[in-house]
Amino acid sequence: MEIEINYENLTDKRLRYQEMARTIQAVTEGETDMIANLANITAIIKSYFDFFWIGFYIVKGNELVLGPFQGPLACTRIKYGKGVCGTAWKNKEVVIVPDVNRFPGHIACSSHSKSEIVVPIFENGKVSMVLDIDSDQYGMFDEVDAEELAVVVKALRCGNGMN
Q: pTM here?
């Protein structure tokens, strides 16, 4: 399947996210394999925004285990409540970190990561995985990112191989 991405008129971040969400919907619609969908979603996010690192961590017991990602080598396992990802899981909320060096307990998988956003994904009221995105620039993420990425992960909960 080839999807052509039209970046014209996508200088507005919110519009870019909305176009990206449509692309994700088109690519994942009808696909029931979770790993295939997560892999394509990370590739789509990378193509639209070129963030430093994009990936999913999947809850397994008391840890988050690395799932599909785009970017350099990543931490494989993160304990509940540890680092930005573990904190988002524990608190069941989006975490935006403008400067990872100032986040208590940040797990430095790469010294190139400067800011981060983590969005929890819920299944039956519990966090089942998190979407983790890192930037090599400070202060990259804001409420627009949080709102629009929440729409993306909500679509994951509505089927598309995520149940």
A: 0.90
